[in-house]
Structures are given as structure tokens and as C-alpha cells.
Model the fold of this input.
Amino acid sequence: MSRSVYRRKCTHDAARLGNAVNDLCLTFSTWEGESRRAGTRSRYTHGLNGSAGAPPSQKVLVLVCLLIITGCDRLDMYDQPRYEPLEASQFFGDGLSARPPIEGTVARGALRDDISYFTGKEDGKLVAQIPQAAYRAIYDRNPQRFDKSYDDVEPATLRRALLERGQERFNIYCSVCHARTGDGDGMIVRRGFRPPPSYHIDRLRQAANGHFYDVITNGFGAMARYSSQIDVADRWAIVAYIRALQLCHNAQLDDVPADQRDGLIKLQSSDEPQDASSEDVP
Done:
């Protein structure tokens, strides 16, 4: 609350308090008049020694005035001598009360010393691999899930966690345009918006991982930037999931581990329609 607003509020409250005091005095005066006409002698009219005392209305008025003096005269604790936001100052040469940070000041947690992790580039070129800091970030997000230190977690476990997080974020932020399969036929496109390119074209399959991170961060073409909605760790998780979509769409049998190929072949053969067996007609 600014000082001017507080002063207006104090003036308004004082006016309301004055009206209340007047009403209270009028009530006591009416009560005293009725008592005198009835011939009664109130203990409030005379003191203990038999001398006339002050009317109750005057006593209440004096008490209220004392409360006002003690409560509103000293405002140092409430209205402290301080600068309001963006208030001018005659103390500093530039006339500003808010001081700019010292050159080179870094906010806590905002050092961003890992250039490839925060920009997707290294020496001005897009990075080809997902930085290790992305796996560390997925571990720090929920270390209880792994139940062991970061150095003892299997790389495959970290990759799976990164993909699961990426799938979740992709379905929330990206699938409306790119569709959940990444073919660019999302619900927004079906409503008439411009379709994005499919992730499965050769140009994007051969693009570096840093390209997808840079597009999420800074936008590209008709796509706006998502740096304010998606944090750095989640951007890399989405990049990892995009790579998984591309692999699934263009995977070959040789890409499947040898110990799992037989099971995949059996599953594929069980899905194929079977020819109906002919029966001899007597």
C-alpha cells in the first residue's frame, strides 16, 4: 500500500470513527436525560465522594481521543521511511531509487556454465548428442525413483526415464500440432492450421539434436518459442522422445537386439490373417 493510499484510508477511517463517537455521545446524552426526568440518581453522575462527576459521554470521548492520538500519531512502524517500487530518488545521480545489479552478477542457480546444455550449441554449431547434464537433470528431478546415487544408476535406466518424461511433455505441448506419432497431423492441423513438417522426413531425421532444442527454445517459422513454457531439462527430454519416434517409424529388424528378434517375429506372424482350411464336402 502506497503512502498516499494509506493517508486516504486513514482519513476515511478517522471520519468513520468521528461519526461513531458522535452517535455514542448522543446515545449517552439521551440515556442521561431520561434518567434525570425519572428522578433516578445514576452512579455515573456523581463520584464516590458525593461530588458531581463528568458525564459518561465525556469520559468515552476523552478515551477515544486518547486512542486516536496513540494509534495514528506514530506511523513509523507501518509507514516506514523507504522507497516504493520505481520511486524517484534525489540521493543517486541517475535519479533512480532501484539500483542496477553489479556488472557480472549471477543469480543463484542461473550460472548456465554448460553452454551446450543451455543453448544446444557448442562453438557455434548445433550439438549432435544429448548432453549428459540432461540425464543428471532427470535424476535430480526425482532421485527417489532410482533409489541409488547418480553414479550407480544404469545408463539404460536414465535413458528410459528421460524418454518417459519426454513422452509426457511431448503429448502435452507438441502433439496438438505434430500429432502423437510425429507425422504433423495434429488436432490443430485438422482444424485448419498450417501443418508442420513430419519428423520422419529425411531432412529432420538427419538433423542434429541441437536443432530440435533450438527450435523449441527460439521458435522456427510459424512455430512460436516455448522457452517460457518448457524448461531446459524438459526440452532435452522432448528431443530424446522425438528421436524415439523417428526410430520407431523407420526401424528395421536388424535394429532389434538379437535376443528379442524371435519374439518379434512370432508376434508379427500371429497378427497375420490365417487362410481358412478347406473341408471336404460329402
